[in-house]
């Protein structure tokens, strides 16, 4: 997983779960299974998509095991991951409810690590619900936490990309174009070029910001390599999202037939 070999990681985690089923029942065994389902969930986000059945089932299993453990730190992380999946799938009501629960658990647990884990979830909830003032406060909190070198992100090591991406989108929505560009530049400057998924995600977010700004030629120039890389590395989410963004840009540029095909493929 650290080398972006997500399919191979997925297979290894699956084999680990099979072996773990042979271990006698205990709290320690359940803790190890919960951790495995959690990291497998992150792999599924990349290999299957955020709202795929396998992705949802993996985090539901992890959350169920965390509920039984009584460990607030593990439970807050698992519920935050559940909320992310539900929010991205478009179920804002249930996603918001889970996000609120994750934040409550993190506050009760009390560590900065737990708060960092749930902050992207709270930001997603407020942004997609249209509470842009709250989303702005979430960005400030999250970026401050992520700047702390002692923080270890467990929800996703790439959460900071999403935080700065949504921070830039939110700034644009509130009418602060210069601030949007500044946050976008900070995101792009910190991306590790050797990690294809990080490059694809940041490229998609960058293209979408340019789409908001109606810089259509730049949108297309950013989205096309993201789509190419996503198909090469089999990243279904960024492939679908970049198809839609590229389609919108091409529509604005007068290439309607290509645009319709791309958007239909992306939605499918």
Brief characterization of the structure:
With 268 residues, the chain is mostly helical. 79% of the residues lie in helices and 0% in strands. The longest helix has 21 residues, at 27-47.
List the helices and strands and how they pair.
Blueprint: H1 6-20, H2 27-47, H3 53-69, H4 72-88, H5 92-109, H6 112-128, H7 132-146, H8 159-173, H9 177-190, H10 196-212, H11 216-233, H12 236-252, H13 256-267
The coarse overall form would be globular
The helix-and-strand class reads: mainly alpha
Mean pLDDT: 92
Percent helix: over 70%
Largest sheet: none
Please report the total strand number as a whole number: 0
What gyration radius follows from the Cα positions, in whole Å?
A: 19 Å
The string of secondary-structure elements, in order, is HHHHHHHHHHHHH
List low-confidence stretches. none
Tell me what you see in this structure.
The longest helix has 21 residues, at 27-47. Helix 9 runs antiparallel to helix 10 (196-212) and helix 10 (196-212) runs antiparallel to helix 11 (216-233). It is globular and about 65 Å long. The chain has 13 helices and no strands. 44% of the residues are buried. It is 79% helix and 0% strand. It has 268 residues and is mainly α. The model has no long low-confidence stretch (mean pLDDT 92).
List keywords for this structure.
mainly alpha; 0% strand; single chain; 268 residues; 13 helices
């Amino acid at each position: 997983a650290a080398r972006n070999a997500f399919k191979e990681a997925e297979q290894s985690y699956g084999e680990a779960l099979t072996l773990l089923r042979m271990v006698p029942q205990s709290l320690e065994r359940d803790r190890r299974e919960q951790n495995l389902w959690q990291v497998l969930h992150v792999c599924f986000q990349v290999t299957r998509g955020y709202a795929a059945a396998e992705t949802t089932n993996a985090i539901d299993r992890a959350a169920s095991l965390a509920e039984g453990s009584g460990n607030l730190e593990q439970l807050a992380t698992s519920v935050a991951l559940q909320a992310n999946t539900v929010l991205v799938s478009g179920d804002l009501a249930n996603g918001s409810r889970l996000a609120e629960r994750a934040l409550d658990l993190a506050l009760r647990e009390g560590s900065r690590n737990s708060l960092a884990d749930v902050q992207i979830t709270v930001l997603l909830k407020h942004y997609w619900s249209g509470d842009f003032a709250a989303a702005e406060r979430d960005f400030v909190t999250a970026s401050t936490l992520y700047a702390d070198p002692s923080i270890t992100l467990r929800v996703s090591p790439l959460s900071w990309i999403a935080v700065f991406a949504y921070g830039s989108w939110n700034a644009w929505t509130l009418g602060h174009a210069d601030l949007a560009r500044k946050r976008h530049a900070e995101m792009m400057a910190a991306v590790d070029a050797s990690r294809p998924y990080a490059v694809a995600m940041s490229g998609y977010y960058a293209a979408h910001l340019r789409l908001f700004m109606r810089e259509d030629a730049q949108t297309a120039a950013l989205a096309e390599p993201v789509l190419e890389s996503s198909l090469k590395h089999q990243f279904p989410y960024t492939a679908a999202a970049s198809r839609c963004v590229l389609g919108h840009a091409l529509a604005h540029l007068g290439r309607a037939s290509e645009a319709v095909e791309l958007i239909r493929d992306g939605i499918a």
